[in-house]
Every structure is written in structure tokens, then in C-alpha cells.
Amino acid sequence: MTNFDSQDDFRSWGNVLKESHAVARPIWRDQLKSAILNGRQQGLSLLGAGLRRSYGDSGLNPAGGMIDMAGVDRIIAFDPEKRLLRAEAGISFDTLLKVIVRQGFFLPVTPGTRYVTLGGAVGNDVHGKNHHVNGPIGRWIRRLGLLRSNGEELELSTSENPELFAATIGGLGLTGLITWVELELITVESAMIDAENIPFENVDSFFALAKESEEYFDYTVSWIDCLAKGDALGRGIFSRGNHAKAGSRLPDLGNTRFTMPMNLPGLAMNRYSINAFNALYYWNGKRTAGPARIGLHPFFYPLDSIGRWNRLYGRGGMYQYQSVVPPSVQVEATRDMLRAISVSGQGSFLAVLKTFGAVTSPGMLSFPREGTTLALDFPNHGDDTLRLMRRLDAIVLEAGGRLYPAKDGRMSAEMFQQGYPAWQEFARHVDHGFSSHFWQRVSQR
Ligand SMILES: Cc1cc2nc3c(=O)[nH]c(=O)nc-3n(C[C@H](O)[C@H](O)[C@H](O)COP(=O)(O)OP(=O)(O)OC[C@H]3O[C@@H](n4cnc5c(N)ncnc54)[C@H](O)[C@@H]3O)c2cc1C
Question: Ligand 1 within 6 A of 251 CB?
């Protein structure tokens, strides 16, 4: 369990990258130190792993040692008065939700899948549909335990080792192994969401809806038909919602209906099927628009309804591309990116557009910043796809924006360093016993 005696191939969630790792699978917190010391004795550079929902190479450490934290997954303490929950880093949001929702609590921030761990969420400082209200999750982390490669155990918070705390939030697992996390929860009155879907015609109407909605809705996000052109450029479905004030506290029983048993043939993902999907999704969204009271799972985690949905992209896999650009240029930059995608004909099934608010987190390498984020899935068509993403890189760089490391497997060192000016300060806190494929790539001078 702590000896790195199994050698496994790990794929990125996008399925483009595959690397072999020696893996330790501890179960108990008191095994973590010996796992780290064993790995170092074997000369391995280390990396903590959660449920490996990062799309690119930030969770891969080729020829190194992976500490799989999914077995270290217990709740340690809960103070309902202070809304503070302390849990081991390997606990999943899925498990946490099963425990907290029926007691009237909810996660302050959740990404679009519940199959992430607390440690992984800290490692990427994840954001959700309520970024404009609650900021990234790092803002809600009160304390955490960190184990360094020399076996030193530290407690981090804004008052204790504050710089290392800031480096660890969004620190991509490079400052050490997160062993436990103390998270502040929010209260909810039910397990339901009052949601509303509104079709919109183009980029301008998206920004108008976002502005209007942010004042009254805690959660906002949009799906975009990224193959639409001309006056319809950027048309989509705007989704907004609040926790319902009444209704059952019992969460719905999850929404996973079907699990992809294998990779789909790559041919299934071509410009015709993507075009047809986008048009159908848009017209269906128009037909079913309006308010509805729905459960947490369909609102927050629609993608979890198909287990291992990443296999839909076939053996070649897919790239995710998530950018954020600042408010002053967000309208033009979003238009430019959508135009470039539409012209290329390489659409995305899942094109998500959202405005981020000004609420920040302590994380030095935290991705979210005020502005607009666009997230896209591109089936991997080799050079054509890479060329399109380089075109998008140029738009993002010119706009003064940046890309999300959790979604990336190919950005240049220059792109990373320009987007994250604090990276050199961050590098001073990296534990040299830890590494990742991502870090080796982007920290080159
Ligand atoms: C369908 C889907 C929807 C998503 N939606 C969003 C979204 O809306 N917002 C968003 O922000 N992200 C989103 N993501 C990305 C996902 O939330 C992040 O990649 C998240 O960090 C994954 O958690 P994980 O437990 O799988 O971590 P992993 O992917 O295993 O690891 C993430 C990082 O944290 C490090 N790490 C993990 N555990 C530890 C530990 N115990 N100690 C130290 N370092 C550790 C890893 O080394 C890695 O660098 C989505 C992903 C998917 C698949």
C-alpha cells in the first residue's frame, strides 16, 4: 500500500496522454509519511492524485511515483455551529454531499463533476457556477495539513505558514501532499434548485443576460453553440438558479444512468455529428426553456449522468481548452475565439461560457480572475486541433488572459509564465521531492 510496488499506466481525463507510474495506495493517514519516505528512498519524484479528473498533464508524473489518495477519505470533524468540516484529502465531493446536504449544508463551491476529491479541488483551486458570488474554493479553506518530502508535517492557514498556504491553494500538488482539509460550508434550506433556462441569440445577449442575472442568482453558466456563425455567433442557453427555500432535504439519488463501457470509434466525433448535436441542443433548449425546480445533481452535474463520458471521444481522446480574459476586452476576445472556432469547423460539444466575479482566493497560481471564461472540448484531430488551439492562444495572450492548468496538456512555457506572473514566487515554495509533467513543461526558462 505504501511501497510503490505497483506500476500502472495513468491516462489524463482527456485521454490524450498516457504515462506509466509507480503507485502507492495508502488507506490510513498515518501511512502517508512512510509512503513519502519510501518513495524518496526509491529515488522517485512524487505527486498526490485524487480522482484524476484533470484533463491534461498536471496530474501526471511520468517515471515518478504517484500517491493515490482516494483511499484516505474519512470525515475527521464537523462543527455545525461554525459550519466547519475537516476531512481527509481523498474524500470525494460525492461522499461529502451524501452526508452534508440532508443536514442542511452544501459545498461553498463545486465544479461540474462531483467525482473530485477535496485535495484535488484544493490543488486546482476549483471554481463553480457561483464564482461571481463565492469565488474559488480556496477562499473557503480555513486550514490544511501538508506533508513535505522530508517527512515534515505542517499545518497551513492564512495565519500559520501563510505563504506556503497561498502556494498550496491552486498549487497543482507541487508543494507537498495535502493530508486533510478544513472547509467552511454554506447552509441550504433544501436539496432543490430553482433553476431557469433562457435561450439567447448571440454574444451580446449573453453578456446582457449575465449582467442582469448576477445580481439575483447565485449560480449562472451558459452552453454555447460554437459552430453558429454571423448574427447567431455565440448563441446558446443561459442557465441560472438559486437554492430553493423549500422542498426536500434528501438529495436525489445521483444521476448516473449509463457508463461508457469502452472508447467510441473515433469517427463518431466529426464536424457533422458535432454540428448536428449543437443545433439539436440549442433548439431543444429553446423548446424547454423556462423556470423549474430541479434536484442538485441534474443542475450541478449533468455530465455525471454518463459514467466515463470521456470515452465518447474515442481512442484519440480530446483536448479541453479553458481560458479567462479580463473584463475590458471580454466581448471582443470571446467573439474572436468563437469566430476562429466556427471558421475552423472543429466544434465542441461542450462549450461553456461564464463571467467570473472579482472575488479572489489566496491561491498564488489560482486560475480564476475577474472576466469571462470559455471552456471547450475539442476531439483530438492531431495537427488541425493543435493549430486551432494555437490560434486561440494568440487571442488569449493578446487579451492579457490565461489558461486553466487543470484543463491543459500543451500550453507553452511562455504562455504559462505570462498568464501567471506569480509563478516564480510560487516556484520558491515547490517541494523538490514533488513534480509533474505539467510543471516540467511550463517552468522551463
Ligand atoms: C466533467 C468535469 C467537469 C469539471 N468542471 C470543472 C469546473 O466547473 N470548475 C473547475 O474548476 N474544474 C472543473 N473540472 C476539473 C476538476 O474539477 C479538477 O481537475 C479537480 O481538481 C479534479 O479533482 P481530482 O480529485 O480528480 O484531482 P486530480 O485531477 O487527481 O488532481 C488535481 C491536482 O491536485 C493534485 N492533488 C490531488 N490530490 C492531492 C493531494 N492530496 N495532495 C496534494 N496534491 C493533490 C494533483 O497532483 C493535481 O495536480 C471538471 C472536470 C470534469 C471531468
Answer: no
